[in-house]
Amino acid sequence: MSENTYPVGTPGQPWGGAERALWLSRQTRHRSYATDVLSVVERLRDRFDVQQYGQLDYGEDSYPLMAVRSRDWREDLPTVLVTGGVHGYETSGVHGALQFLQTEAERYAGRVNLLVAPCVSPWAYERIHRWNADAVDPNRSFREDSPAGESAALMRLVAPLGDSIVLHIDLHETTDTDESEFRPALAARDGKPYEPDLIPDGFYLVGDSENPQLEFQKAVVEAVAKVTHIAPPDDQGEIIGSKVVSEGVILYPFKPLGLCAGLTNARFATTTEVYPDSPRATPQQCNDAQVTAVCAAMDFALGQAAR
């Protein structure tokens, strides 16, 4: 452990309203959700159904929340949920989801109902941040009475689908800024000591400790290994503090932690983690890894359903 020297707050004391306001005042817009996401979604309308499932209002900023659905939706087909940008700073999660829609999604027409929410946290996307404007992490907020509007809106969108969802793949990244900014900020916000960790170099998956489905996880890792390298375990046999249970796979309890990947009761669920800061990976490679993961996950799930 080390004393937290994050520039907002007093070490050892959780943030109050003044600290959250100071933190918010330090956040700067770096990119455009309208340009990068909404314009792409708009161009997909000729091939898919596009749905606004909510709206976020933060001060003067307003963000429509958009989802893309299969046009040939059928009640007798299984449903696949793809989510990206739950953490807005994790760029390939957003652009990978959009690339999948643009290049691969139509291959599955007539085989699955597809629902894609490519950018769950647009305010954070624009500011390249993990939290929303209230300093709340949406990916710890998928629970009843959610404190995050981003999470609550996605929960409302998905709720009517019930157990028809057989697969949920949530697209994320692990970045160097996890250690330089976001984990120190979390410790400062909560008044706790900062505990440094290592950033893994490569792709890995987070499965559900209560429903691991390791053959499924293995199939996704093997497919992605053809696109980019898989993160090795550290000297303790761990990745970010969790035991590696299969090459490139660790496990978290999805629902108790309020993770997006625990949003449904899908038989198959996983969180991808791409490492965009690796000298061995380009931005396009990161996007390709996300697309490959989605396709491999869908192929495995459909293969199991056909048995």
UniProtKB/TrEMBL annotation:
Pfam families: AstE_AspA_cat. One of its GO terms (biological process) is proteolysis. The keyword Metal-binding applies. One of its GO terms (molecular function) is metallocarboxypeptidase activity. InterPro entries: AstE_AspA_cat, Peptidase_M14. Its cofactor is Zn(2+). Belongs to the peptidase M14 family. This is M14 family metallocarboxypeptidase. Gene3D superfamilies: Zn peptidases. Residues 29-307 form the Peptidase M14 domain. Keywords: Hydrolase, Metal-binding, Zinc. It comes from the Bacteria.
